[in-house]
Batch of 4 targets.
Target 1
Amino acid sequence: MKLAMIGFGQAGGKVLDKFLEYDQRHGSKIVRSAVAVNTAKADLMGLEHVPEENRILVGQSRVKGHGVGADNELGAEVVEEDINEIQGAIDQIPVHEVDAFLILAGLGGGTGSGGAPVLAKHLKRIYTEPVYGLGILPGGDEGGIYTLNAARSFQTFVGEVDNLLVFDNDNWRKTGESVQGGYDEINDEIVKRFGVLFGAGEVETGDTVAESVVDSSEIINTLAGGGVSTVGYARETVENDQSSGGILSKFTGGNESKAEDTANTTNRITSLVRKATLGRLTLPCEPEGAERALLVTAGPPAFLNRKGIERGRKWLEEQTGSMEVRGGDYPIPESNHVAAVVLLSGVTNVERIKDLQRVAVEAQENIEEIREESEEKLQELVGDDEDELEPLF
């Protein structure tokens, strides 16, 4: 799937940078064009792979390149004011060559949280291509203001995109991990999962042809119902001996060995599909009730087969209760891993979002209460008991 990616804010820009690095390393040709947008000049300068001419600094008249300080209302305002500058960069994108737009943003901060929904609304008004969001939720330990920002942005972003893919930092941070190390690893996990999903069908594999092709239309149709989506991923190392046609060295006998090889391949795929679905999803949820699903199995062609994919797809139908479950394979001849990626679209059984909203409401009430108390105390401080003093103006 060929995407025009726009990274908003610090988190969105870093994930965009990681996608470009992934693209270069794997030759997956996912990112057709990349634009980074920020209100903080330092964040844009820290990017390594986004072309300098595609790094757009907005809000200079308001915040002078220093960011919006986690104020997502201000973030939305400055993006609205400078939307033509962003559009100028997007005008350089060969839109006829892309399948969709993908807006990447951390939802807890200011620029991405506020600006990403504004851009999504703008793009949907102008283009016929789907506009997707990839929203990153902050960890629960990052503070009430970031949770409040995320809840408000999430609510707005979902309504402005054709589908919102979500990655929950709270589900991925490790105890005792440094902040920088934690975010680097999280960004790697984001790109690994979505890279395999969006890369299906885009890698040039010579004479290798998928048994059951997954292309951009399969992804678009899976996301077409809108709402919120999550992605699961599982992989297993295999002995990929390409010199012997990619078959495991121990399977060198006759028909019995081939049958055993086929059985092992099928069992491996179905096991990976279960792990991907029931393991750590990008947004924790129950698969039951998902409106649509897509299964992609990736790896050396010798370790992929139609029977395994069909079994995995049928199991997904049972788990989700949906008849709209698509599946296919993504051959990567040089890989030493077999992986399964499961996209669950239109999920509704998501306790994490309900928790996020509860904490956000508490944070909002607390902020309002503190503000009212502060105003009262300020009046007590500056006012005189007899009310004899008069202010200058």
Target 2
Amino acid sequence: MRRRSMHREERAAFGGWGPGFGPRGRGGGRGARRTKRGNVRAAILALLAERPMHGYEMIQELESRTGGLWRPSPGSVYPTLQLLEDEGLISGEQSSGKRLFSLADAGRTEAESHRTPPWAEITEDAGEAATHFHDAMGRLMMAIRQVMHAGSEEQKARALDVVNDARRRLYGILADDED
């Protein structure tokens, strides 16, 4: 119970929602997603063209290859794996308590029909800056969590000032944009 009230106090410092969260959930709500969703089917086939993989391994690999811009959910990956298996494009077998998937010949043919891997489209559309921003935001959030967990009240107040100043300065960048 003590931990819950501490968490509530930490969230209060960020307007009640906590860092990085808004009233509509992670990312601030409607319209917050700027990168397009990837083609899960094509991505799975492209990954399996390289080597056999487990479902969760594919999710991690796609997140890694897009610099964190795209992490398909298990709710989209696993049904797609089942569909591809039903279509005879991939096969799955139990290995070490997990299901290891590999391409069938028909799946290899379909994978080769795509010129560029789906993750390349996502990173190109988002631009290099988006990848760097995602990494920087992750490091910033870690620093905020550490200050909120281990900092004194004065340090927490100073950290909040820094975050609020950064927000104002970012909006200032947009205000100066002449495009």
Target 3
Amino acid sequence: MWRRDGDAVVLELAGERLARYEDGSRLPQVHAQRPYLHPVHTLAGTVLTDAAPVDHRHHYGVSLAVPDVNGTSHWGGRTYVRDVGPTLLKNHGRQASTGPLVGDADPHVLHDAVRWFDHHGAPQVEESRRLSAHVLASGEAWALSWRSVLRADHGAVTIGSPATNGRAGAGYGGWFWRLPAAASALVLSASGEGEEAAHESRSPWLAFVQEHEGATTRRLAVQHGQPRPWFVRASEYPGAGPSLAWDAPLEIPPGGTVEVGLTTVLLDRAVDAEEAAALAADAADLR
């Protein structure tokens, strides 16, 4: 169940502490303050998230990170400027948690209302966030479901990415999971094996199989609803997430909404593509 632990909220299942939800208020402004999950563990205790890694200091565990919302960065770090390239701008917004609440009827569910502010301090987006956790029937894995509804209550919203600003193939932005470095990483998807096959695909699921100091882990993310294109990195660094604005800006009219939803299964062993697909089908029913 979720419970308070100081100024954070922690998840405990099957007698183990499996995740920690931070409000992000202590992050540097240049990293785009936002609530995030870190660390997230498997049932055997292997950590499958990274925060502020050397290669990308603005990556924080699991978060909803978007590089361009009406010109404001909720991703952190540099912004890709058309015909210029990555540029450090003073355009970093922040996502402010109003205080996560554990569900009265189900302590395995965490609710948070998150307000997104632009780099001038004006409200941009209202977000309703729901995190829920389940131990799978087999007892060998657990699943984390994330559902966010973004509402354009303060006027029209345009969500962009480096790709929509001119950097081909860099359509990142949205729900993003940064994994820790590992001795090896294999990417599996319905589109085939490997980073190249998964990147840009609309596979309904994506799996990372990693070797961590003798322990093999597997993280399988399943999209809810119509799949969006995956942004995938495995060779440069391990991380992935479905893109909100892959090759064209996402327009949300005043009062409109956009939903983001995924369920992630965490296992302490390797799987092949056939088993990953079967597990993805089971996880698709979890919310």
Target 4
Amino acid sequence: MPLIKSISGIRGTIGGKTGETLSPVDVVKFTAAFGTILKRKSTDNKPVKVVIGRDGRISGPMVSSLVQATLSALGIDVVDLGPSTTPTVEIAVPLEQADGGIILTASHNPKEWNALKLLNEKGEFISAEVGQELLKIAEAEDFEFAQVDKLGKIIPDDTYLQKHIDAILAYPLVDKDAIKAKNFKVVVDAINSTGAIFVPALLKALGVEDVIVLNSEVTGKFAHNPEPLPHHLSELSSVVVKEKAHLGIAVDPDVDRLCFVCEDGSMFGEEYTLVAVADYVLSKRKGNTVSNMSSTKALKEITLKQGGEYFASAVGEVNVVKKMKEVNAVIGGEGNGGIIVPDFHYGRDALIGIALFLSHLAHHKGSIKSLRALYPDYFISKNKIELEKGVDVKAIFDMIKKKYAKHPINDEDGLKIEFDDDWVHLRTSNTEPIIRIYSESDFESKANNIAHRLMEDIKEGMK
């Protein structure tokens, strides 16, 4: 099983050989490399401080103990949030005036995966340049550990659930009174991870009293594939209908992705999480928006309608954040249900996303299904092809680029090819050994046909 090193962190499966999986040796090595970077960057005599937190994975406690011990051995103080969420750790880093953060989560990957997601002092993902430096230090094992009387302290801190919720309640566009007045009945699929702790607590703070939580035990034994896609959410859909709930909410294991289910069990569409939240934000404050180039064009249409300008970035949260800062966007994110609210914090955050979406729905004066009907009906076909070792992806992409040379092509991040009003985006994943093939059209069959045509092209190139 693979060990993947990218701007999305150090990610791999648990169990197996060192250097080929996220083995204990690799956890120590990459943690030590990150700690070394922070120590070298530090200019004062205060101990370096790192905030860590983990999702509900089976391997979480084991990986956390290795990370804590390694950082302590470097002389770094550790603020341990314990079971937490990615956005909560991101918020905690600047509040703690820490030098960096490490989130122990493999996001939407299955239970055998875990990862080190690395944050800078702003609580944002490290840059590609810092990532390259980390890989060099890890490869050379260029670490210097602290003397026995200079070991770092471990400081447990379980206050950040409430601090995160308090910050959401204080955010100007969150309308708690309007949400409470609607008496929403909500079903939550917490996928046996920390969303089972954080999402119900947030809903209660927003005045939502009638909450049913599915997969509510934080065991890391995910009840289904943890990526919040329609074919994984059949249980949530059926319970929403059975319980006559107003809506369903699904998050991924580290609570940075978000999608909704309508009252009739149909999907609101993970692509439309950002569209709806952006529509609400833009109705309150004019400005620009950003999403990655694998996301629906509906966001561009909503932005232009609201008097703003839309910009596309390369895929990856760090790339979206960089573009958002460049164009001073008021809202942005990714079509996988990732909401980034820049004046809250520059990170995907399902919790602030829930609060803003419910504020929007409360003001809509109709059902979630009727809210969805306000937006265009585009279809994105999301597919992937697994890569065997040694496949020359560049050669495959060059072949496809030549074949479709008469069409507009953007090769900033993989290949995005435009076919009149439709598009297809091919790119290697930062988190799995695969090529993703996303295509969008006004008809589902057209989107699927475009995707399947390009998948055949890729398979032909792999022969």
